[in-house]
Amino acid sequence: MAAGIVPLPVAEKLVAAGQRMDRRGWVPATSGNLSARLSGDRMAITRSGVHKGFLETQDIIEVDFAGRSLTPGMKPSAETLLHCQIYALWPDIGSVLHGHSIPATALTMALPEASAIHLQGYEILKAWSNVVSTHDISVALPIIDNDQDMPRLAAQLQPWLEQGRAPIGYVLRGHGIYVWGSDVNAALYRLEALEFLLATEIERRKLV
Ligand SMILES: CSC[C@@H](O)[C@@H](O)C(=O)COP(=O)(O)O
Ligand SMILES: [Zn+2]
């Protein structure tokens, strides 16, 4: 495969994931970004500024792990470095997904002092079968303050990630969710589980 050209099956998987995220209302306007690991320290990622519900395979471009575009003339997602960070840390991760849902945005804005949301007692936590085998557990979902400076934001996230303190993903305050998985579908299922958890947590807090 020539440098800069993403294998079609990988691009098609990311296009389909973008369509699903759009159908669920998780990527309003041009928000969100999606990526998949390629061989040799490279990845496929959405180019910057496209609507994720209307992605075409040409909108999926190739970048290296420093976030540099290998597809001539195409600008990668503004948040590429956050994807690079996950791939560089864990060789078994094959896809990273990011969306801007209402639950992720509303809950993190409603908790301006919180550095994590503690999710406890939920069966669906078992979607992270690598770290959770029972509902009888409390899992921390870090909330990191949003920042437009990606190297600085990545540096802030690094200790959380390295120390295993973001076992199911993280949320950027007022911004959105980052999740990852072994491949695009695995990451998508986890995004769905996390969206369910945050929506449920909002409902639960209304009832107590
Ligand atoms: C529509 S504003 C959203 C962006 O600022 C950003 O947070 C985002 O998720 C999409 O950026 P992009 O560069 O298209 O990958
Ligand atoms: Zn974003």
General description of the model:
The protein is α+β, with helices and mostly antiparallel strands. It has an eight-stranded mixed beta sheet, with helices on both faces. The protein has a single domain, classed as L-fuculose-1-phosphate Aldolase. The longest helix has 24 residues, at about 185-205. A hairpin with a 3-residue loop joins strand 7 (about 170) and strand 8. The termini are far apart. Helix 2 runs parallel beside helix 4 (about 150-160). It contains five helices and eight strands. The protein has helices at about 10-25, 80-90, 100-110, 150-160, 185-205; strands at about 35-40, 40-45, 60-65, 95-100, 115-120, 140-145, 170, 175-180. The chain binds 5-S-methyl-1-O-phosphono-5-thio-D-ribulose and zinc ion. 5-S-methyl-1-O-phosphono-5-thio-D-ribulose binds near residues 30, 31, 33, 79 and 98. It is an enzyme of class 4 (lyase). Pfam families: Aldolase_II (PF00596). It catalyses: 5-(methylsulfanyl)-D-ribulose 1-phosphate = 5-methylsulfanyl-2,3-dioxopentyl phosphate + H2O. Pathway: Amino-acid biosynthesis; L-methionine biosynthesis via salvage pathway; L-methionine from S-methyl-5-thio-alpha-D-ribose 1-phosphate: step 2/6. This is Methylthioribulose-1-phosphate dehydratase.
Q: Which features would summarize this protein structure in a list?
A:
single chain; 208 residues; alpha+beta; L-fuculose-1-phosphate Aldolase; 5 helices; 35% helix; binds 5-S-methyl-1-O-phosphono-5-thio-D-ribulose; binds zinc ion
What's the number of helices?
A: 5
Shape: globular
What count of structural domains? 1
Largest β sheet strand count, sense and barrel closure = 8 strands, mixed
Gyration radius, in Å = 16 Å
Structural class of the secondary elements? alpha+beta
Say which molecules are bound, naming each kind only once.
5-S-methyl-1-O-phosphono-5-thio-D-ribulose, zinc ion
**CATH topology call:** L-fuculose-1-phosphate Aldolase
Task: Average the pLDDT over all residues and give the rounded result.
Answer: 97
Task: Please report the first level of CATH classification, the CATH class.
Answer: Alpha Beta
- Element order, helices and strands? HEEEHEHEEHEEH
Strand content: 15-25%
CATH superfamily heading: Class II aldolase/adducin N-terminal domain
Widest sheet: strand order?
A: 3-2-1-4-8-7-6-5
Helix content: 25-40%
Q: State the CATH architecture.
A: 3-Layer(aba) Sandwich
Number of strands: 8
The low-pLDDT segments are: none
Through-space gap between termini: 56 Å
